[in-house]
Amino acid sequence: MRETNKVFHLAIPCKELDETADFYEKLGCRMARRYNDRVTFDFFGDQVVCHLNPDSIDEMPQMYPRHFGVTFLDKEEYDQALKCAIREKLPFFKEQMIRFEGKQEEHMTFFLVDPANNLLEFKYYHDPVMAY
């Protein structure tokens, strides 16, 4: 199980800092730092750094194999994230769906797309054992 003295770090490209900050703050992520070439967020307890690099934006993103996100262990938190995305009119890449229905690994999921076409997945497993 994860220890609370560790924070996962992910660096991703962004094409413009203001729109990136707006998206992640609407999602509920606290901005930790901002420089002229990057912005760092508390992304649900982990660190996401969006580096200004407009030439490396994926113009045709696909869910697989590249995306990142959060697996919620509490359904209420998953529901809150979904409600927040809807309320803030954040762009969905894939609306909420059920994956692996009827199997032990069944889970609810939805995908958002940030302003640089980075795909974010949010999911909740009915069986918490399947989170890993």
Kindly describe this structure:
By secondary structure, the chain is an alpha/beta fold. The protein has one domain (9-131): 2,3-Dihydroxybiphenyl 1,2-Dioxygenase, domain 1. Helix content is 17%, strand content 39%. The strands form two sheets. Strands 1-4-3-2 form a four-stranded mixed sheet, covered by helices on one side. The chain has a four-stranded mixed sheet with strand order 5-8-7-6, covered by helices on one side. The termini are close together. The model has no long low-confidence stretch (mean pLDDT 95). Pfam families: Glyoxalase. It comes from Virgibacillus tibetensis.
Fold topology:
Layout: E1 9-14, H1 17-26, E2 30-34, E3 38-43, E4 46-52, E5 68-72, H2 75-87, E6 92-99, E7 107-113, E8 119-125
Parallel strand pairs: 1-4, 5-8
Antiparallel strand pairs: 2-3, 3-4, 6-7, 7-8
What descriptors fit this protein?
single chain; 132 residues; alpha/beta; 2,3-Dihydroxybiphenyl 1,2-Dioxygenase, domain 1; 4-stranded mixed sheet; 17% helix; globular
